[in-house]
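Lecture 7 notes: from sequence to structure.

We start with a single chain of 98 residues. Read the sequence below before looking at the structure.
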Amino acid sequence: MGFVSGVETTHPDKGTEMFLYELGVDESARGQGVGRSLVEALTAFAEEGGCYGMWVLTDDDKVAARGTYERAGARGSSSHLMLDWSFDTPPARQARRR
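Now the structure, written as tokens:
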């Protein structure tokens, strides 16, 4: 039906926080509160584990994702810019490097 994954990150000067890494809900289960329940479960897990907070990145145009996170208690707090690196290594070459 769905899954959620998170990564705990510990900062020496702040403590441990949870990064909501990925949320997925099967198409047939969307719009039924499954995503919100999964996010709420990760939130509870993080809080019980001593995390001081939790965060997630999503695109502005991902209306369903933003709605899910907001219904689960998240609030927009910044206008960060995500920067990334793209490694254009052909898949066959990647397999040989391992």
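Strands lie at 2-11, 15-25, 54-55. Keep this in mind for problem set 3.
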